[in-house]
Structures are given as C-alpha cells and as structure tokens.
Amino acid sequence: MLQVQAVYKSYATPQGPLAVLQGVDLNLEHGSSLALMGESGSGKSTLLHLVAGLDNVDRGMIRIGGHRLDQMNETQLANWRRTEIGLVFQQFNLISSLKVEDNLAFQARLAGRYDAGWQAQLIERLGLGELLKRYPEQLSGGQQQRVALGRALASRPGLLLADEPTGNLDEATSDEVLQLLLDLLNDSPTSLLMVTHSPRIAARLASKVVLHGGRLASAGAR
Ligand code: ADP
Ligand code: MG
Question: What is the pLDDT of residues 180-214, one digit of tens each?
Fold first, then answer.
C-alpha cells in the first residue's frame, strides 16, 4: 500500500545543504503496521512529511495505494491527503475553539466522508462519550490523544501516520492509547506508520525499521 523507493531529501541551511534522507526504501503492506525508529534528528519526521505529501522529495518515488505523489498537483494532493491520510502528532494539535464532538468530525466533514455510524463507534471505542461537549483544554493528555486518534480515523483513511503519538503521555496512558489504536486498526483497512522512541511500543507493531545515516535498516519482525 505504501512504497518508498530511493528517496533523497536535503534541507538548505546557512552552512550549506543538509542531507537528511539518502536513499530510503520502505514497503508497508495493506493493513499492516510499522514502527519507525532512529535517533533524534535522523530524519523520521522528514520521512513522515514526505509520505504525507506535505513536502517534496529531491529524488526517488513515493507511491501510496496506486497514487504516485510526484504526479499529483497541489489540489489533487490536498484532496487525496484529506481522504486517504490520517495524521497524529505528539502535540495532539486539536482545534482549541471546537468541542470534542466537532474536533472529531472536522476532518471527515471536510473530506465529505462523515459517517455517523462510524463516528458513534469511534466515540464508544475510544471512551469519549462523556467528553463530547468539552473543549480540548478541559481534557487530560491521554484524553486529547484519544480525540486526535478519533479525528484521524473518522474519514477511514488508508494510511495513518503517527509522529511520536505517545511521546507526551506517561507509560500507562501510552499503553492504553496504543491498545485502543491497535484494536481499532484490527477492524479497519487502515495501515499504520508510527514514529516512536519506545522499543516497548515498537515491539507491539508488526515490524520495525531504524533510520540511521539517511537510510533505513530493518530491525526484524515481531
Ligand atoms: P527526527 O524527526 O528524526 O528527529 P527530523 O526529520 O525532524 O528528525 O530532522 C532531521 C534533520 O533535518 C535535523 O537535523 C533537523 O534539524 C533538520 N531539519 C528538519 N526540518 C528542517 C527544515 N525545514 N530546514 C532545515 N533543516 C531541517
Ligand atoms: Mg521528529
């Protein structure tokens, strides 16, 4: 479902170009999950941004569910991202002026994919029923991340990209949120690419890779 082939990416810096990705290859099967590990600054977020179509590769190819990202224009990319990609970040990134219920539906509505039945199921399974009328600032970190997961999954994207989604949560809350996510993914066609620093969390996914020196090394399957 996701193929990354020989991807290169550098950033321009005052000291000259900084080569971050130097020939990254990656395959993620439909419905599978992959942990992306690597030291801070190794380029994990850069790779996630490229896969999300938020930035362009210098060289190489990214194909997701039959679409080559480099062959889409900005409008096509924006529409595709809205329907096919779910994004979850360490900082939750909820919309502070919207109640939980509206945060949840926001992306799905934009994508024209709002489905009341699926929304109700997400609310129930993520344990958000009591929290629907609250604003993000009235929630704990774990509750906010559950809302962010619900929002990302509401449009039933083919691929969920998560950048250290449990990085701001304590260990017990991380485990709880991860378990909810994995249970939901079990019952949906969504594939998962998750950046994590935690070997414990990485071990729960189907496989893991490590980014080092601009390339990916397989870290073995579970
Ligand atoms: P990670 O997520 O693995 O910590 P990043 O992908 O965020 O790493 O960053 C990889 C490297 O690229 C770092 O050295 C970072 O400072 C640099 N970098 C990231 N984004 C930019 C940017 N927009 N401009 C210049 N350098 C950047
Ligand atoms: Mg990062």
Answer: 999 999 878 899 999 999 999 999 999 999 999 99
Q: Amino acid letter at 136?
A: P
Q: 42 CB less than 6 Å from ligand 1?
A: yes
For residue 196, count other CB atoms closer than 10 A to its CB: 24
Q: How far is the CA of 71 from the centre of ligand 1 (A)?
A: 25
Nearest CA to ligand 1 atom 27: 11
Q: Which ligand 1 atom sits nearest the alpha carbon of residue 12?
A: 25
Q: How far is the CA of 36 from the centre of ligand 2 (A)?
A: 10
Q: Is the CB of 11 under 6 A from ligand 1?
A: yes
Identify which of 129, 144, 141, 192 has the alpha carbon closest to the alpha carbon of residue 171: 141
**Is domain 2-221 given the CATH code 3.40.50.300 in the classification?**
yes
- Say which DSSP state 53 is in: T
Nearest residue to 171 via CA among 199, 135, 134? 199
Burial class (CB in 10 A: 0-12, 13-18, 19+), 21: buried
Atom from ligand 1 closest to the CA of residue 195: 2
Q: Ligand 1 within 6 A of 145 CB?
A: no
Task: Report pTM.
Answer: 0.93
What are the extents of the domains in the chain? 2-221
Average pLDDT, the chain: 93
Could you read off the pLDDT of 71-92 as tens digits, one per residue? 999 999 998 898 899 999 988 8
Other CB atoms within 10 Å distance of the CB of residue 96: 9
Q: What tokens does 69 get?
A: 């990202």
Q: How far is residue 180 CA from its own chain's centroid?
A: 15
